[in-house]
Amino acid sequence: MRDAQPREVAGPLAGEDVEVSRVTPMMSQYLELKAANPGILLFYRMGDFFELFFEDAETASRALGIALTKRGRHRGEDVPMCGVPVRSADEYLQKLIRLGHRVAICEQTENPQDARQRGSKALIRREIVRLVTPGTLTEETLLEPARHNYLLSIARTKASEDFGLAWLDISTGDFFIGSSSLVQLPGEIARIEPGEIVLPDGVLADNSCGAMLKQFSVPLTPLPSSRFDSANGELRLKSHFAVASLDGYGTFTRAELSAAGGLLDYVLLTQLGKVPCLSPPRRTLADDAMSIDAATRSNLELARTLSGERAGSLLSAIDKTLTGGGARLLAQRLSAPLLEVATINARHDAVSFLVAEKVVRHAVREGLGHLPDLGRALARLSLDRGGPRDLAAIASGLAIAGKIALVLQEHQSLLGLPAELASAASSISEEALRDLHETIAGALGRDLPLNARDGNFIAPGYSTELDQARRLRHDSHKVIAGLQLSYAERTGFRSLKIRQNNLLGYFVELNQQQGEALQKSALKDEFIHRQSMANAMRFSTDELAALEQRIATASETALALELEIFSRLAARVKADEQLISRAAQALSVIDVTAALAELAHENSYVRPSLDGSLRFEVSAGRHPVVEKALKQISAGTFIANDLHLNPADSEGPRILLLTGPNMAGKSTFLRQNALIAILAQMGSFVPAREAHIGIIDRLFSRVGAADDLARGRSTFMVEMVETAAILNQATPRSFVILDEIGRGTATFDGLSIAWATLEHLHEVTRCRALFATHFHELTGLSSRLEHLGNVTLAVKEWQGEVIFLHEVRQGAADRSYGIHVARRAGLPPAVIQRAEQVLAELEKTELSAARRELLDELPLFSAALQGPRNSADCSKIEERLRQIVLDELSPRQALELLYELRSTVIQE
């Protein structure tokens, strides 16, 4: 694991035993730094390695798979130790961060030579320069280009049950604030996908909240509640954004201010006081976006498949962005489809323009294909963590932005631009951005190092002083030769030489006769006699002495000059960071718009029509992920299907009951319509011939089967929990897809649950829904439920085989063809034959017909709920409730009232 590199010589343990009564200076320094950072792995710089000791070493060796050694003794025991090379530290950091660890980076703040000047045994100074946590990464090697790395803060005040949320991506500066109830919180966390969550220790200790948070595989960082004070949070926000009031950003609740304050406090703590470039906070409201709970996001595989992979998800299928910022914005829009029709239409207008204007689209995408990640380069520079390549990324990005702006502005004058593209074009055409590009581009060279301290990144000709230092460093002999020629011409002695030795350094040498003549000339004060030889004389000059000093320090001088220039350029970038940030965001908007236009053009997607109705009509709809997969394997054409839900029509269905065999495409049909709704409301065109969708406020999916053993839930329990969430939270404007409700238990139990669920959706929730089932008895409900329709997946039987046509047709299936599917799956022939015999016997009992008779006997859901009431049983409670004035009850009186009512119920 170790390179053959020289190790630290000033102040190490040096391998000697450390007795209980004595601690070496280095170990004392280490223990002091470790005590100030409990619970964090300490990367302690020693020469060319980061070392870890004690429990940190044991933890890191297991996590990284590196050897655990020992170095010296402490309190009578061996000191465990392991280490990683500094030059490859990012690779090890990445592994530790992905495992949820936090790391403190302790750097040497002086070199061994400087330490020795304070004494031969002086300890090299070290300081914690950064705390690396999963939610505060900025290094390019530690981040996924296409994914935000959000740090989420959750807080709650005593005055409110709702949680305040604040989240930011320190690597891009995106900053959001919002609220959530406890019921909505899992869905919000799933939408944000944070890399780390910070929260008051009291919230984590709360059983109802703490248990829910721990089900997410996200590192949790509890902090003292004092860091989440709402008044301090408000002051932190005002101070950070240099404003006297937050009214310009929105009206924030105390819980939201508490979360935002704790978030900023944690960022400053981990960045050791360095302030990142943050966009002004944008307040997100629950009513701004379609609500999609965690289970639905997982079932629909929006950003990740069930196995956790990006490939195979909806995001992967539609992502044609060309930049990291664009990919992150696309994922953000997909995670939060809009509810405001005007805003959605503005996005559709922009996509429609670039679909029609092929030349503009290609020109824009040509530029975007070469665009670096402006946002992340800016973040590193703002935190003093950037290098010459980040400056080059800013310069290159601004140059490309200028070209894209010209393309858009040219067509704006000819054709006009949709509002979203016009606004983006304005943000990337600022005069200050062009000036900044010219300033940086004129300073940087070509082959740029990663770190500024490596030098050689400033272009020749930019700084005369730097060019001179470089000439001295690389061509000192030429400089000396030039000075020698100058001296020869001034003295008139052509044989004059400038030489060097270890005693005198550089000196002027003449023969004896010329030397004596020089001492008598007018130049005698300038040329100072230093030494006489048998046949030569040696002189020095102030100019030569100064040149010798410059040659000796040329490398250090050149590096210092480059670092000074880098600091000036970085400061210039910081001065314009808000302009650059807006330009980066605008370029991301352009990239997403152009990518969605390219997607629509290549795959024949159409612009959907959205309004405030309850319609959901799709003509020739397709599943975007399945269709892409079929194209990749050349397996034929996807079979498109229609969907018509229009409860405004007196005969139109609100719910479709979908029956048919397994493998015929029921789940695909369910999912594709949910995905079409999401695409439409995020601002994308959709895979269909035509689509008209009334805005959906909440989307619910109960598709597939999985257990949750970690929380003690069987497959059926998970199914019931998810179904309960749907029935309790769905509204008339929601869209629900349900697949095989009740199949995880006994037949009669399952049929009963499915029956009651279907009636509840129709009579109580009154939402739009697709309900797939193998309980064919439910198809008879269409004659009694006004807005329930039957559709089925068509099949064709031919020569004893069943052919799946994957077409959705009106009507109901009377068979599930399960035995046929079992045969195709490879069950032994004897098992298939016996199953057919059992099925034949069961069908003779006409159980299905008997069950259908229940339709004529059971009341509808609404009628069942309005069953006979015994007025005598309820009279006392109702009378007591009428007497109560709720606003006048104290908490104690309310509790006493509950006990009173409970006692009444028990007595009756």
Explain what the structure shows.
By secondary structure, this protein is of the alpha/beta class. Among the domains are: 25-132, 3-Layer(aba) Sandwich (MutS, DNA mismatch repair protein, domain I), CATH 3.40.1170; 145-288, MutS, connector domain (Nucleotidyltransferase, domain 5, 2-Layer Sandwich), CATH 3.30.420; 609-861, Rossmann fold (3-Layer(aba) Sandwich); 871-907, no CATH class. Helix content is 47%, strand content 17%. A hairpin with a 2-residue loop joins strand 1 (41-46) and strand 2 (49-53). Helix 12 (324-335) packs across helix 24 (577-603) and helix 14 packs across helix 24 (577-603). The model is unreliable at 1-21 (pLDDT under 50).
Core attributes:
MutS, DNA mismatch repair protein, domain I, alpha/beta, 47% helix, Rossmann fold, 6-stranded mixed sheet, Nucleotidyltransferase, domain 5, single chain, 7-stranded mixed sheet, disordered N terminus, 17% strand, 908 residues
List the helices and strands and how they pair.
Elements: H1 25-35, E1 41-46, E2 49-53, H2 54-64, E3 69-74, E4 77-85, H3 89-98, E5 103-108, H4 112-117, E6 126-132, E7 151-155, E8 163-169, E9 174-180, H5 185-192, E10 196-200, H6 201-205, H7 207-214, E11 220-223, H8 230-241, H9 254-270, E12 282-283, E13 291-292, H10 294-300, H11 314-318, H12 324-335, H13 341-356, H14 358-368, H15 374-382, H16 388-415, H17 419-427, H18 431-443, H19 464-474, H20 476-491, E14 497-501, E15 505-511, H21 512-520, E16 528-532, E17 536-540, H22 542-552, H23 554-575, H24 577-603, E18 609-611, E19 616-621, H25 624-633, E20 641-645, E21 655-659, H26 666-682, E22 690-694, E23 698-702, H27 715-729, E24 735-739, H28 747-765, E25 768-772, E26 788-798, E27 801-810, H29 818-825, H30 829-844, H31 847-852, H32 854-857, H33 861-865, H34 871-883, H35 891-907
Parallel strand pairs: 1-5, 7-10, 9-12, 10-11, 13-23, 18-22, 21-25, 21-26, 23-24, 24-25
Antiparallel strand pairs: 1-2, 2-4, 3-4, 5-6, 7-8, 8-9, 14-15, 15-17, 16-17, 19-20, 19-22, 26-27
Helix pairs in contact: 8-9, 12-24, 13-24, 14-16, 14-24, 15-16, 15-24, 16-17, 16-18, 17-24, 18-23, 19-20, 19-23, 29-30
